[in-house]
Design a protein that fits this description.
41% helix; 157 residues; three-stranded mixed sheet; alpha+beta; 5 helices
């Protein structure tokens, strides 16, 4: 199997060794996936197999919208995950979703969504500079829009 250095596999997580925000986030995600009404059977199956993959990104101040975060950690995790995706059959990727968790605790959903788009834009710019230099910039509202990183199309939710 693939050896991860930055991405953490659910089956190998030893939660007592992590910060409280990381433990709480993983617990909440797993609990949500175990709900019968959760709409994605692939994520539920990945959870049952203990195949969820995590990248934790800490910020210098979790309550501040403009706080700095470890973009390098995020990029290393994304590079490692996309290299993993290139090595396994496409159908198997369904059972190895990557979940990126920041320790932001912003006041409202709109701020959280805006911050997420800012981060994605930074990741996208890095990708254009380093990997997919010939990619055509698409309108994100287009029906065929895809988020691509390191030559791999990623499904974002």
């Amino acid at each position: 199997m693939f050896k991860f250095n930055y991405v953490l596999k659910q089956s190998e997580l030893d939660l007592p060794n992590y910060f409280n925000w990381e433990k709480r986030a993983v617990s909440e995600i797993v609990k949500t996936l175990q709900e019968e009404t959760f709409p994605c059977v692939f994520a539920q199956r990945a959870n049952d197999l203990r195949n969820l993959l995590f990248v934790f990104v800490s910020t210098d101040n979790s309550k501040e919208y403009n706080s700095d975060y470890a973009l390098d950690d995020l990029l290393k995790g994304l590079i490692e995950y996309t290299e993993f995706c290139k090595k396994i059959p496409t159908r198997e990727r369904l059972y190895f979703p990557l979940i990126i968790i920041f320790n932001w605790q912003l006041d409202n959903l709109k701020d959280s969504q805006n911050k997420a788009w800012e981060v994605l834009n930074q990741v996208y710019q890095y990708n254009l500079a380093c990997f997919d230099k010939d990619i055509v910039i698409q309108n994100i509202d287009a029906k065929d829009w895809k988020f691509r990183f390191n030559g791999v199309n990623l499904f974002l939710i």
